[in-house]
Amino acid sequence: MSDASEVFATADLIDAHGDSIASCETQFRQFGARAAFHGPIRTVKCHEDNALVRELLNQPGEGRVLVVDGGGSLRSALMGDMIAGSAAANGWSGVVINGAVRDVAELAGLALGVKALGSNPRKSAKAGAGVVDEPVAFGQVVFTPGAWLYSDADGIVVAGRELPRP
């Protein structure tokens, strides 16, 4: 597994690998202190319920990236400072949320990549509804568990395997 501090640029990866990798069209905001992050994907699909997000990010991350498909809802946050703090402490490289986060000032100080659509101070439900490690799709990209995600200031790209750096 690669060191999350390795330097890469998504634009260079696209230039080198072309259409063999996917570029996410969704425009995310950066919330974590780690502006660039990458790693193998795990997924959660949930709607306004973050129990599964919490459960996964409390486990060893081993440099992985959690992709959360919250259906684009900005009604409640799927991650805040406590869950994100657990993710950073447990070795996750980053989290991409197709939905909202909260505790934005605290997230900015965590050594974790965090991309989300926006923020909302409202807590989510905690019922545990959703699915884990099934492919999820948004931004014209299918995020498959085990594929590799690369994220930086230019955006997010996804490849079926770890990519050599150009």
Can you tell me about this structure?
The structure is a single chain. The protein has 166 residues and is an alpha/beta fold. It has one domain: Ribonuclease E inhibitor RraA/RraA-like (Glucose Oxidase, domain 1), CATH 3.50.30. It has helices spanning 10-17, 51-57, 81-89, 104-107, and strands spanning 22-23, 29-30, 37-45, 65-69, 77-79, 94-101, 113-119, 131-132, 136-138, 141-143, 148-152, 155-159. Strands 1, 2, 3, 4, 5, 6, 7, 8, 11 and 12 form a 10-stranded mixed beta sheet that branches. Strands 9-10 form a two-stranded antiparallel sheet. The longest helix is centred in the middle third of the chain and has 9 residues, at 81-89. It starts with 9 loop residues before the first helix and ends in a 7-residue tail after the last strand. The model is unreliable at 1-5 (pLDDT under 50).
